[in-house]
Amino acid sequence: MLREAGGSHETIRSGGNCHESGNARRRAGKNSVRKIATRVSVVCGAGNLLLAAFKFASGAIGHSGAMISDAVHSTSDILGSVIVVAGVKVSARPSDRSHPYGHERLECVAGLILGGILAAVGLLIGWGAVEKIWSGAYRNMPQPGGIALFAAALSIAVKESMFWYTWLRARRIDSTALKAEAWHHRSDALSSVGALIGIGGARMGSPVLEPAASLVICLFIVKAAIDIFKDATDKMVDHACDEATEWALRECVAAQAGVRRIDLMNTREFGSRVYVDIEIGVDGRCSLAAAHAVAERVHDAVETNFPQVKHVMVHVNPL
User: Fold this and answer.
1) Do residues 314 and 278 touch, judged by C-beta distance below 8 A?
2) Do strands 309-318 and 273-282 pair parallel, antiparallel, or not at all (unpaired)?
3) Cα–Cα distance between 265 and 263 in angstroms, integer?
4) pLDDT one-digit tens code per residue, 250-301
5) CB 130 within 8 A of CB 213
6) What's the whole-model pTM score?
């Protein structure tokens, strides 16, 4: 326990080496997060591999350039799954001398890489669509076969299922990289919607629908990439928690016995984890041991009720 006296008030920092149980809970939490993220990425990676192979075969057999392009998009998801596994694994490494605050921000780096891949894929799809419309190349495209239409419909169903499977687990462990991977699945589903419209339109005599739909899909994909970049960047620059979380933290702290008021509370996101600095007012006539007990109650209550919190610093002001 570290105590620092200064002026008319004292600082009590909780959560040091004496809190072995808290450290054990955090280690168990990290292992759980790593296992969930790894399992999700392995399942989706295997599904993407099978889906991409089927799309390539369907595009070649059905003479569909749109389906082959969609297969390339699915292949990028395989790379995304590898990046997510690597990012989450590295970010879960324990603190060391060179990185005393841990490695959580490396997960944000994985999110930025995935966002970059997503933006690049979206822009390439948009550029190809504009080029086809501007040059009139869509008029000379062969009519795609029925197998390509079936592959597009199957891809939409599979990729939308992957999106929800990944997104729900990303929300559960608050993983930036996994959220980015979920949106990558959604972008692939949107790409398949465009392929379905384009292939269907070409089979009905309107081949221009394929590049037009791809252009609209480009906008959705780029929007998703921007959202991923914003989320990852906020967590890398010590952005504060959302108002709902801060309000819940304040209610939790104020409910602890001995807390007369909350003088200050700052939060900052550090990767997928949160740091909290709190100044509380207690009865100035109480002993140091009593003030310490109040700080301990605040510390333990925050860590128990907010598993995303990695560290709590409690500063005590006498009233």
Assistant:
1) yes
2) parallel
3) 7
4) 999 999 999 999 999 989 877 667 889 999 999 989 899 999 999 999 999 9
5) no
6) 0.56
